[in-house]
Write a structure and sequence with these properties.
The protein has 435 residues and is an alpha/beta fold. It folds into 2 domains: 34-276, Type I PLP-dependent aspartate aminotransferase-like (Major domain) (Aspartate Aminotransferase, domain 2); 278-402, Alpha-Beta Complex (Aspartate Aminotransferase, domain 1), CATH 3.90.1150. It has helices at 3-20, 34-37, 52-56, 65-83, 95-106, 126-132, 150-160, 179-188, 202-206, 242-255, 261-276, 279-299, 326-337, 360-364, 369-383, 389-402, and strands spanning 23-24, 87-89, 112-115, 136-139, 164-167, 193-197, 220-224, 235-239, 303-304, 316-320, 339-340, 342-344, 354-358, 414-417, 420-423, 427-429. A hairpin with a 3-residue loop joins strand 15 and strand 16. Helix 5 crosses helix 10, helix 7 packs parallel to helix 8 and helix 15 runs antiparallel to helix 16.
Length: 435
């Protein structure tokens, strides 16, 4: 066996072992259920579905016919139910792909687009994408890192008449509400559309823990499906407007083409599991856990942002080491002890580098408020050098072993597949007679 292949396998095994012994608190990541991983080891991973009958009037890529049925007959109706939208589009393959399609569909070259400034948590790629598509970029006025300045926004709407307001928060504690802006649009710039990039919030929106953007004045919303929504790396778009839906379809046909049918099937499984296994409970637990984690971390002596506002209204919690120089060394120490964090040079309103943390994945693993508080105290001891690394690592590994598998998904149900049986939790049984 070639040495490079052996090294590849060694690194994959190392990664897998690390994940089994660690808690990942990166806001852009989550964990798939065992069944949601299934499509990636099937023939679905290799096949195209281009919606041939709609595009060409006859079948061209026949290998994906059954996969197309999964999308059109199972996933799309489920997305419509959960987004409470008349039209959905599951073709985007990422949040950034959603952004590109949405901006292209909702404005023309030369139009003005307003988005959230980077210093207030706006996505770093929005301006690059929109400018390359020919739009003129301006920023929404903010009265601080967490709130819009509505008086200035009204003046900007009246003077610029933008085609699109793109709410693109990616680093935030308090989700911006589009409803006050919708009211200003109606009075000052009636043709302006609102798109709400919900990448970080989809799991909370679809399962009723935070507001639905369509019900708060957005023309459309969408984003990635692997953050608070614990699905595959993919994207979705939703709208109630027929014309907008047709534009989304037209642009995703060309900007995406093959849209990864194993991901489509995996997303359908994820949504079915959350629908049937208390996804609403998961989403509400994320919000409770975030506050509990933030309070405990702050109480243990670590600086946590927005303490005066009860810390957070989403999955994110921001914490800072004692000095700016500590960020990388503390991050490495946490990693060595089994806690994976997301470090940032700048977070809105913070004067020094800090950590952007999320409780979404640990909530999916089954941690409740008391466990999140315990995890916060161990993390504080690591960050403040109050405990020896080996002891902290042992504590994290013990806790992780007690929360080894994703929750809010189908249990240990044997499923007939390929002439054998698959268990939702334990994996393949080689003998079809085993359960």
């Amino acid at each position: 066996m070639p040495n490079d292949f052996q090294e590849l396998i060694r690194l994959l095994r190392r990664q897998e072992l690390r994940s089994q012994q660690s808690f990942n608190m990166t806001p852009s990541e989550n964990v798939l259920s065992p069944l949601a991983r299934l499509p990636f080891i099937t023939d679905a991973y290799a096949r195209y579905f281009l919606d041939d009958l709609r595009l060409f009037g006859s079948w061209s890529f026949r290998g994906g016919r059954e996969l197309g049925m999964i999308e059109q007959e199972l996933l799309d109706p489920l997305l419509k139910e959960l987004t409470r939208a008349r039209h959905v589009n599951g073709r985007p393959i990422s949040g950034l792909n959603c952004m590109t399609a949405a901006v292209a569909a909702l404005c023309e070259p030369g139009d003005t687009v307003l988005s959230v400034p980077g210093w207030a948590g706006g996505h770093a790629s929005t301006g690059v994408v929109a400018t390359r598509l020919g739009a003129r970029m301006e920023f929404l006025p903010m009265s601080g890192p967490y709130e819009l300045d509505l008086e200035k926004a009204e003046h900007l709407l009246r003077s610029l008449q933008p085609a699109l307001i793109y709410f693109d928060q990616s680093t935030f504690l308090f989700p911006l509400d589009p409803q006050p802006v919708r009211k200003l649009i109606e009075q000052n710039s009636p043709h302006t559309k609102i798109h709400y990039d919900s990448s970080h919030l989809n799991g909370l929106i679809l399962f009723d823990a935070v507001f639905n953007p369509l019900e708060r004045g957005a023309t459309s919303f969408g984003g990635s499906t692997h953050k608070t929504l614990p699905g595959p790396h993919k994207g979705i778009l939703a709208t109630n407007e027929d014309t907008i839906a047709r534009k989304f379809q037209a642009f995703t046909d060309h900007f995406v083409s093959h849209h990864h049918m194993a991901d489509v099937a995996s997303l359908a499984i994820t949504l079915m599991e959350l629908r049937d296994c208390n996804g609403i409970g998961y989403a509400k637990a994320v919000l409770r856990n975030a506050k509990a984690f933030a309070r405990a971390l702050h109480g243990a002596g670590v600086f946590v942002a927005a303490a005066e506002r009860n810390y957070t209204e989403c999955h994110q919690v921001w914490a800072a080491p004692e000095t700016a120089e500590d960020v990388q060394s503390v991050s490495e120490r946490l990693h060595d002890c089994g806690v994976i964090v997301n470090s940032f040079r700048e977070l809105p309103g913070l004067p020094r580098p800090a950590f952007r943390l999320s409780v979404a994945e640990v909530t999916r693993l089954g941690l409740g408020e008391s466990e999140c508080e315990a995890l916060a105290r161990v993390m504080a001891d690591i960050m403040l050098r109050r405990t020896e690394r080996g002891l902290a690592r042992s504590c994290i590994q013990d806790m992780r072993s007690r929360f080894a598998d994703p929750g809010y998904c189908y249990g240990d149900i044997p499923i007939e597949f390929f002439g054998g049986r698959l268990s939702a939790r334990t994996g393949w049984a080689s003998d079809p007679g085993q359960s």
